[in-house]
Amino acid sequence: MTPMTSIIVIAVLAVIAVYISWRAGRLDRLHARVEAARFALDAALVRRSSIALELAASGLLDPATSLLLAGAAHDARSAESARELPESDLTRALRAVFSQPDFRALLAVREGAEELLTELESASHQVFLARKFYNDAVAATQAARRRWLARLLRLAGRAPCPEFFEIDDSLAPAGETGGPTADLPHLTS
Amino acid sequence: MRVGLVCPYAWEVPGGVREHVSGLAEALMDLGHEVSVIAPADEDADVPPYVVPAGRAVPVPYNGSVARLSFGFLSASRVRRWLKDGDFDVLHVHEPAAPSLSLLACWVADGPIVATMHAAMPRSRALHAAQPILASALEKISGRIAVAEAARSTLVEHLGGDAVLIPNGINVSKFEKAEPLPGFPGTGGTLGFLGRMDEPRKGLDILLEAFSLLAPERPGLRLLVAGRGDPDEALAQVRPDCRDRVVLLGQVSDADRVRMLHSVDVFCAPNTGGESFGYVLVEAMASGAPIVASDIDAFRQVLRGGAAGELFETGSPEALAAAAGRLLDDPAHRAALAAAASAAVREFDWSVVARDVVRVYQAVAPAAGRVAVAL
């Protein structure tokens, strides 16, 4: 081997090593992004169920609505595994509560109601956004992990493969879909 | 008496509580009382004249499934108006711990309130979370009734206090007479089963095994099964050469259910547990079917310790086969059991059960005045 070919071989190997470590670093960053997004999503879910419980216990609502909301919020907050179902149920309960005819108008006269409802509505938006960003990060990570180089060299190491979080978080009342504001739905129009 | 009944679940949807409320309402009217029922239903829904619709029920996740309930201020104001118009001597709410009309009625009413607890509720922690919300409405109830021991213990554990036990009623006359299904019971003997095929606690597998033991020696014996579930899965548990003698009806209408009960020589209830009362038994008794049932608490009580039906060791196909075989061979004993069952079942007839309920009304009403609208 001439010195020239050795230099070329070493250079090629060095380039490959740099590329692999860059890919591994990228995968690592993607996993970190998923983790951060998951943290934000968990926080948003906990905030939503806490405010729902607060509204249920506030005495502003009638007892049947309160009980419905308290049950759904409690189930969502206390679920450890399989959180998707109780969180979806909480969304459905919130939707049923907020879509009562004249719900906001009837509550407007009560002190403190408007603040709580606005807070709950914003918490629901946060869930919607956090879940969107989390699933986005999961999709990117899964795609990166599926590449042949990543699989061949196990670039992801022992990091568990992140999974999508699928819940019903649409806040438009049943029957109304889409529209230009579909990405930022409101509990009441 | 003027009685106001509150049903928390949608009137249009068949279900245990709704059946109970309509059965009780009709029995109370037969006894000469004036009755009005408020229930979630559309304004223009086709309901009996004694039912006042409280507006459309909303489907919401509740207790692990979807229930159709009425809640909110508008429903509350409808209940208030109904109370005002009704001017009742006693208000009787059903399942007041469900987030629906019954709870709202407790909230807006004052005076003599009676409540009936139906379900055993396993969600104790959620109930605990909602305790303060429930407490203020439920503490107005002056007389509590539970339809079964399980419902009573839920009440005692979660909400405190006690309740009198008054079982669910049935309309015995609806079961007494029916045309058997074509070709039944036949001459070779017919065993019968009613209940979900895929619910292990209903015990169909025990009966299928017992049938496989009996069928080879009795070439004419057949088995009639009514209930939801996978037919292939059920048949796989029967001896291959006897499968053509098992007739699976699937889920049947109320009318066919009664006809089915009149089509059997021996009705089998091989349940292994999970029954708080014994509805299928009570229906079979009202239909005059000779019964073989597992020796579980609920069944022993309903069958008067074995006087109104044979009891066999719970979970044993051999014991079931032996008991059913003895009955198939002894028409006189079958007739005697059927007669005893028909007599014993009278105590579950609405006419009798409603009288017990009225006694609760009478115990509560004089002390508490009339039902008034609070707030």
List the helices and strands and how they pair.
The complex is a heterodimer of chains A (about 190) and B (about 375).
Chain A: H1 3-57, H2 63-78, H3 84-98, H4 103-108, H5 113-146, H6 148-152
Helix pairs in contact in A: 1-2, 1-5, 2-3
Chain B: E1 2-6, H1 16-30, E2 34-39, E3 51-53, E4 58-62, E5 65-69, H2 73-86, E6 90-94, H3 101-108, E7 109-110, E8 113-117, H4 124-129, H5 131-138, E9 143-146, H6 149-159, E10 164-165, H7 173-176, E11 190-194, H8 204-214, E12 222-226, H9 231-235, E13 246-250, H10 254-261, E14 266-269, H11 279-286, E15 291-294, H12 297-302, E16 310-312, H13 317-328, H14 331-344, H15 350-368, E17 372-373
Parallel strand pairs in B: 1-2, 1-6, 2-3, 6-8, 8-9, 9-10, 11-12, 11-14, 12-13, 14-15, 15-16
Antiparallel strand pairs in B: 4-5, 7-17
Overview of this structure, please?
The complex is a heterodimer of chains A (189) and B (375). Chain A is 69% helix and 0% strand. Chain A is mainly α. Chain A has a single domain (12-152), classed as de novo design (two linked rop proteins). In chain A, helix 1 (3-57) packs antiparallel against helix 2 (63-78). Chain B is α/β, with parallel strands linked by helices. Chain B has two domains: 2-169 and 350-373, Rossmann fold (3-Layer(aba) Sandwich), CATH 3.40.50; 173-346, Glycogen Phosphorylase B (Rossmann fold). Chain B has helices at residues 16-30, 73-86, 101-108, 124-129, 131-138, 149-159, 173-176, 204-214, 231-235, 254-261, 279-286, 297-302, 317-328, 331-344, 350-368; strands spanning 2-6, 34-39, 51-53, 58-62, 65-69, 90-94, 109-110, 113-117, 143-146, 164-165, 190-194, 222-226, 246-250, 266-269, 291-294, 310-312, 372-373. A seven-stranded parallel β-sheet of chain B has the order 3-2-1-6-8-9-10, sandwiched between helices. In chain B, strands 13-12-11-14-15-16 form a six-stranded parallel β-sheet, with helices on both faces. A two-stranded antiparallel sheet of chain B has the order 4-5. In chain B, helix 1 (16-30) packs across helix 15. The radius of gyration of chain B is 22 Å and the shape is elongated. Classes of the chains: A mainly alpha (189), B alpha/beta (375). The interface between A and B is medium-sized, with 26 and 32 residues.
